[in-house]
Amino acid sequence: MTQPGSIARASVRYGRALEALAMVGFALLLAMMLIIVADVALRNLAIPGLPQGLAWSNEVSELMLYLMTMCVAPWLLRQGQHIRVDILLQALPKRLAWSLEWIGDTIGLACCLVIAWVGAGSAWSSYLAGSVNIKTLVTPEWWSLAPLPIAFVLLAIEMLFRMHRLWQGERAPRSDAVSAA
Question: How does residue 153 score in pLDDT terms, banded at 50, 70 and 90?
């Protein structure tokens, strides 16, 4: 049996883990910026002994953009900073809006689980097949597929914590993600 505060404590610890993952995403953004600046500088400044640009910069930047999205998405969901249309929820009676929050969270949880399952299957199939991405760099395809199911499992876990917070709170639309006053 779960003790009353254990879910809240687990939620706090999970929130800290998501903050750390978001910091990884922010570090990826910084690294991507530095790579792009270096590429542009090297293409425009003829410096003896250095290459004329970084041939791999576009490919690596694309992957970094994807990875930073996967790292930051669960944290954004936790912060209530994801894309959300809440104007209708604010106009409806509180109890009905609360019920619609449950429907939205249930659909969100189901979508996260399905995407995680399909993504894991795709990454596993790619791993078993030995598929590779051949662009400027040659990398195993599963390297780029694996972050998707991991991120969506993390999103699903956050959806469960959101549902718990919704259950514990006022029977009204959640205030953590409201843009209208």
Answer: very high
